[in-house]
Amino acid sequence: MTAATGIRAVLFDLDGTLADTAPDMARTVNVMRLSRSLPPVPLELVRPHVSKGARGMIGAAFGITPEHADFAALREEFLAVYAGNLCVDTCLFPEMGELLDRLDGRGVAWGVVTNKFEHLARSVMDGLGLGSRSAVLVGGDTCARAKPFPDPLLHAAEKLALKPSSILYVGDDERDVQAARAAGMPVLAAGYGYLGDGPDPARWGADAVVASPAGIARWAGL
Fold it and tell me: What is the DSSP string of 148-186?
């Protein structure tokens, strides 16, 4: 499918797809580690886990899973510390700014569907200067169920007043592809993103894996 044959909007996952938020996520867990007299963890260690949010970062930095008795308290601490470090070094991925300009210039609506809490996602978007440009923003707590369920994507489609089949979704995690497929949206895997530690993106079932934001435009014919 191309823009000429029906794509009227593009939705992006936030962390690892639209923006490189890893430096500030890593800063957050290192503030937590410093308060415990622990050495910092390198960005390269935690970067693959950023798309899993607080759960992934706590697991990477402290080796603790959600079943651990200390997890809930660490999660709350992470969210509180991160709220003060949302947009220190966070930035758009290379070529993403040009892609957004291209979408705006062609009258193609774009927005964000993320599992990050909506208020945090809005703060990041505002910090990047994109809050007023995004046509829709759906967070992980906006709907009753987050990705990999289709609810957030369907909610975004409703807000855009567009059929899901006319909206392209782009994400860097397998659950992004699962959510898009369940919502009936074409989907690209962001091969330049964080990607996690699961199966190779080529096995996620996306329509294609793109190596850069420019690849999104080429695939969609924009």
Answer: TSSHHHHHHHHHHT--GGGEEEEESSHHHHHHHHHHT--
Tell whether pTM > 0.90: yes
Provide CB contacts within 8 A for 29, sequence distance 6+. Answer: 41, 46, 57, 58, 60, 61, 62, 78
Encode pLDDT of 190-200 as tens digits: 999 999 777 89
Band of residue 2 on the pLDDT scale cut at 50, 70, 90:
very low
Tell me which residue range forms the domain holding 43.
22-82
Choose the final residue of a domain: 64, 82, 100.
82
Q: What pLDDT does residue 188 have?
A: 98
**Residues forming the active site:** 13
| pLDDT value at residue 6 | 81
Asked, as a colleague might, if the bond just before 199 is cis with ω within 30 of 0, I would say no
CA atoms of 120 and 139, how far apart (whole Å): 9
H helix or E strand, kind and range, residue 195: none
Give yes or no: residues 112 and 209 share one domain.
Answer: yes
